[in-house]
Amino acid sequence: DAAMVENYEEVLKEHVKKPGHFIWYECTPFEFGSEEFPAYVPTWAFGRKFEFGKSINRVPEQNLGLMIGLFGSAPSAPLIFEINQFELALGSGWVKNQFTDVYAEAIKKIGDNRKEVFEGHHPVPTPKNNNFIYHIDPPPYKLGLTSIPHLSLMDAGVSNDSPVYPVTRPARNIEIVIGFDCSSVIVGRELFETEQKVFCETRGFVRKERDLTNKYCEIHDFTPNGATNGFCPPADHPFTLCYFPYLPNDKVDPKFIPSTEKFMAFNNFTYTTEQVEKTAQLAKQNWKDGEQKVKEVVIEVWKKKKAARLSGKK
Questions:
Q1: Short-list 244, 108, 272, CA closest to 182
Q2: Mean pLDDT, to the nearest integer, of 115-140?
Q3: Of 127, 177, 219, 283, whose CA is between 20 and 30 Å from 107?
């Protein structure tokens, strides 16, 4: 970077002042890219070397299954994410308080600068692919992602376990999102509330709880307010979230608690037939117990669209 960026030292001082954030990439069988730049490439071209917006080699298309493995690389999360997950799994009580106190004391001793380096460390290296926006603009080069030859990719759960960023992309006009949250740490509402707060601040939404009477299907309304944090384009269309947390259900097995079940841990990748059947059975029952709420939302939106169509409004 120092060799390519003009006034590197001055630019770097300003660059490090910017708040860190996770960039969301969207991958479909048709295209891969991010709205933050914005830039997209055909999915069959992802992994090729690019410079100035053009492919400079002709490597074969990557296997989609391999790519899904790369994008779902949860073990590659930064250490602070693993620590936060562990704290959430502890719930509340003496053990969590002791852990929090010991960790805070240890961080205090190493100082703020080393704290950022320590918490940002990746115990498992992130998968890397050629950066399709490398030098996408001609010189003078800017400091940042367009000057980095490789992308470091990982599971989007480090930012939000619900992929609401790409589905709420402006001009998509999504009206209903049915979200199934299978996070490994659904103990309380702390994680959901934290992630939705960050999402709303980033995208520019106000979230309002509409109906929380059914624990298997919560209804939340999101309304654009235009007040983003500058990373993503602001939202331009309201939507309703039908949120299904993966909770225990007495109708299936009162002793089966996904958040504490050992085989459900995020670092386990081997399952028996019985375990798979039980997880599927629980998901089906939770949907059955919450589907009426979804139907009510769908009918409501359909009636609004019908009324708008008949009145000549968009």
A1: 244
A2: 82
A3: 127
Strand partners, 224: 205
CB 135 within 8 A of CB 144: no
- Phi and psi torsions of 206, nearest 5°: -110, 125
Q: Beta strands of 26-165 (E only): which ranges?
A: 26-27, 31-34, 39-42, 50-51, 54-55, 128-130, 150-152
What tokens appear for 221 in the block?
């309304």
Residue 69: predicted pLDDT:
83
**Rounded Cα gap, residues 274 and 80, in angstroms:** 34
Q: Which two tokens stand for residue 12?
A: 């770097």
Three-state DSSP state, 120: coil
| Average pLDDT for 7-16 | 82
- Taking the C-alpha atoms of residue 219 and residue 212, their distance in angstroms, rounded to an integer, is 6
